[in-house]
């Protein structure tokens, strides 16, 4: 049963019996063998590139690619980047009849994360694995499920390709200028349509409003800056938000954490000599 076709499924008809999340590092020329026995696997490449070989053929993937492996498909990955990192989420989700819910029967690259939005999910999941916060484990599961939801939405966007083409100019502008302030009317004018029509088509393509999409890009970049050592105030200003209280509220909405928590954990990692993920 394909996950991205289940637009509306009663919660009581679903059972999750397995979940595991790990981040791995591999050097140049190293190989990694795996077998997704009894569960589906999502592999997100954080850094580097690799060739994945399985019984049905090979897949080439690089940083930003999200790969999918069906249940019980074994593979070997050979890494060619100077520095290679990848995150893995294993999950078993079944319906009331015991049928596994997944993204299909064949291994494939689900999509290329051009703007590295999903990298943030993986970073947050990895950081929570080292966190001493109460219920950090539960938050990791929550983020993993949210990630699956976003992937399912991503898989439905192919049907919206016509809509995407109509608002392409607005999307490109937004992604290039997300640190700036502009109106929906301005984006709509670039696409020769009304603001109402633009909002509707945008939601069809991105499953969120233009404002939420811009804010998600801002928070993702701010998270990167905080982990690079920038102060909370400067990170907020760098992504176009001058109201620190609003920035903190927005940051927690998108990440589940306050910016100060990210900052503290980064400083602890540096002080303790930990390798950043």
Automatic annotation (TrEMBL):
Cited SMART domains: HTH_ARAC (SM00342)
Keyword Endoplasmic reticulum among record annotations: no
GO molecular function: DNA-binding transcription factor activity; sequence-specific DNA binding
A Pfam match: HTH_18
Keyword Metal-binding carried by entry: no
Residue ranges of domain HTH araC/xylS-type in the record: 168-265
Gene3D superfamilies per the UniProt record, alphabetical: Homeodomain-like, Jelly Rolls
This protein's UniProt keywords: DNA-binding, Transcription, Transcription regulation
PROSITE patterns per record: HTH_ARAC_FAMILY_1, HTH_ARAC_FAMILY_2
Transmembrane segments: none
InterPro entries (alphabetical): Homeodomain-like_sf (IPR009057), HTH_AraC (IPR018060), HTH_AraC-typ_CS (IPR018062), RmlC-like_jellyroll (IPR014710), RmlC_Cupin_sf (IPR011051)
Protein name: Helix-turn-helix domain-containing protein
């Amino acid at each position: 049963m394909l996950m991205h076709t289940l637009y509306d499924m009663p919660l009581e008809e679903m059972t999750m019996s397995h979940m595991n999340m790990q981040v791995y590092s591999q050097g140049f020329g190293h190989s990694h063998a795996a077998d997704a026995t009894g569960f589906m696997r999502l592999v997100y490449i954080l850094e580097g590139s690799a060739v994945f070989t399985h019984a049905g053929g090979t897949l080439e993937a690089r940083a930003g690619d999200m790969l999918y492996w069906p249940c019980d498909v074994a593979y070997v990955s050979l890494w060619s980047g100077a520095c290679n990192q990848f995150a893995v989420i294993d999950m078993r989700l079944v319906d009331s009849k015991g049928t596994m819910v997944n993204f299909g029967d064949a291994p494939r690259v689900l999509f290329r994360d051009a703007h590295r939005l999903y990298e943030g999910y993986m970073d947050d999941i990895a950081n929570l694995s080292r966190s001493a916060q109460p219920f950090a484990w539960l938050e990791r599961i929550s983020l993993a499920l949210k990630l699956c939801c976003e992937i399912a939405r991503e898989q439905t966007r192919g049907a919206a390709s016509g809509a995407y083409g109509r608002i392409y100019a607005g999307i490109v502008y937004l992604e290039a200028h997300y640190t700036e302030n502009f109106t929906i009317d301005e984006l709509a004018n670039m696409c020769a349509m009304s603001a109402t029509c633009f909002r509707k088509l945008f939601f069809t393509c991105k499953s969120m409003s233009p404002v939420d999409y811009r804010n998600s890009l801002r928070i993702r970049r701010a998270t990167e800056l905080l982990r690079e050592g920038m102060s909370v105030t400067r990170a907020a200003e760098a992504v176009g938000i001058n109201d620190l209280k609003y920035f903190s509220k927005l940051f927690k909405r998108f990440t589940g954490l306050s910016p100060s928590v990210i900052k503290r954990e980064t400083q602890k990692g540096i002080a303790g000599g930990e390798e950043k993920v």
